[in-house]
Amino acid sequence: MIFEDIHYNITIAPDLSNRIDTMLYPRAISDLVIVDGFIDAFYPGIVTYDLGRKKDNLRKTGQKDILRVDFINQKMGSNYVLADMEFNLARFEKNQAERIQYLTNQGTENLDQDKQKFKQSYAKLNDAVMKQNMKADIWSYFNNGIKSNLLDNDIDSVMHKNGKGLNRSFACNVLVLLTDGYIEAGLYGKENCEGNRCYFLDSKRVDDFRIAFKKSGSNDMKAFFGQEGYGIIPVENPLLKNLNVLVMEMYDRSIDSSGRAKYHPSDWEILQLFWSDWLTQSGVKSYKLLPTASSKQEAMRHVQDFLRSRSVE
User: Fold this and answer.
1) What letter does residue 193 receive in the DSSP assignment?
2) CA distances from residue 228 to 47, 212, 266 in whole angstroms, order as listed
């Protein structure tokens, strides 16, 4: 029998462009609320939750889970202390007693203190970027911003201590991308395209695709997409093959204030088509695309479902 120890290596990468301005793009919950949800859920919600298999398969001991924030705009890294926005249980690998004391707040260094530090640091970051006109080059982030330091690819198989089988210990690398789904970083025009595939996906390009599809008379949007060679130019980053991507808070700009779609197909339908093709062609291990959540509870339920589905592959 093979026993599996799963260690979650979770990176939250927020698109800190003007999409975080909820006055400009109103949402039920902000990125700040979602990040707070991750911080609150880290222990016990993520670290020890039931994998959904057997009663005795709770993640109880030895977790090396990591939760961190990373910047899509890499130049921001020098302005903020990323270490204040990270939980890292891997540092307790050789001293599980200290790990337990840390998680249960029995030591001088404890999780509650780090939770407050994490929340305060992210809130400070959020307030600062609200006053700036930041760009978020998501394409370049996937291509060369996701580096080996964000992934743990170690897989070890050793005899289980009770002698009943092998123990397989592996990391589940997860990128949580907080974005509205429109890839806008100043790269526009035909010079940034190869036919109908481009480095960007702005509102105009979504509109142009919708018009072309309707003009074609086709009733199969996916088939039209493929036949006409539409898409986002794939990135070439071999690390993506070990990365599970959860895209959250994709924002449908074609929905009016009453919640009705002004156009068909809607922006959300088109965004899903472009993103699904792009992430697949770029070689990510797995992905899930989510629209804006109606509550913090809904958002975190989606996160738990995604983690669980990755742990039972």
Assistant:
1) E
2) 45, 10, 19
Sequence ranges of the domains in the chain:
2-185+238-311
pLDDT tens digits, one per residue of 114-171 = 999 999 999 999 888 887 767 789 999 999 999 998 998 765 544 455 555 566 677 8
CB 16 within 8 A of CB 141: no
- List of residues 6+ apart from 60 with CB closer than 8 A: 48
Residue 54: phi and psi, rounded to 5, are -125, 160
SS (H, E, C) 260-308: CECCCCCHHHHHHHHHHHHHHHCCCCEEEEEECCCCHHHHHHHHHHHHH
C-alpha 270: how far from its chain's center? Answer: 20
Query: What is the DSSP-derived secondary structure letter of residue 255?
Result: B
Query: What whole-number distance in Å separates Cα of residue 236 and Cα of residue 149?
Result: 17
Question: Any bridge partners for residue 250, and if so which?
Answer: 291
Q: What are phi and psi of 181, to 5 degrees?
A: 95, -10
Instruction: Look at domain 2-185+238-311 and name its CATH class.
Output: alpha beta
DSSP secondary structure code for residue 105 in this structure: T
Tokens 């009943």: give the residue.
164
Largest distance between two CA atoms of the chain: 67
CA dist list (Å): 166 to 5, 34, 161: 11, 37, 9
Look up the pTM and report it: 0.90
